[in-house]
Amino acid sequence: MTTAVQVTIYLNESDKWNQILQMLRRENVACASAFHAVAGFNGRNHVHTAHLVDAGGNLPVVIIFVDFAEHVTRVLPKLCELAPGRLIVRENVTIEQGNLA
User: Fold this and answer.
1) What is the DSSP letter of 20?
2) Whole domain around residue 39: which residue ranges?
3) Residue 50 in 3-state DSSP?
4) How far is CA 62 from the centre of its chain?
5) Which CATH number belongs to the domain containing residue 70 in this structure?
6) Are 36 and 83 contacting, i.e. CB atoms less than 8 angstroms apart?
7) Global pTM value
8) CA atoms within 13 A on the CB side of 86
9) Could you tell me if residue 85 is inside a domain?
10) pLDDT digit string, tens, across residues 39-82
11) Based on the structure, what is the number of domains in the chain?
């Protein structure tokens, strides 16, 4: 088992989620995924849901990435620049299977 750090970023469709994912790739982060939600909210705003008539870019997008603590600490300032004011959660995790190589 290996100890690592998992970071979760809560965004909207209108945020720079693709730029964030590309930055994480360029920074050689071990693994990252972006998830497009069908409903949710950021902050204390109202719930946004996926309807065909909704095209305002308010649906939630969540990015999760995992790497060693040193690497996460190095990319966090860039992440905060690309997602100003957005909720970013950092937590220690245990890797049960696989590796970060």
Assistant:
1) H
2) 2-95
3) coil
4) 5
5) 3.30.70.120
6) no
7) 0.84
8) 27
9) yes
10) 766 666 666 665 544 555 678 899 999 999 999 999 999 999 99
11) 1
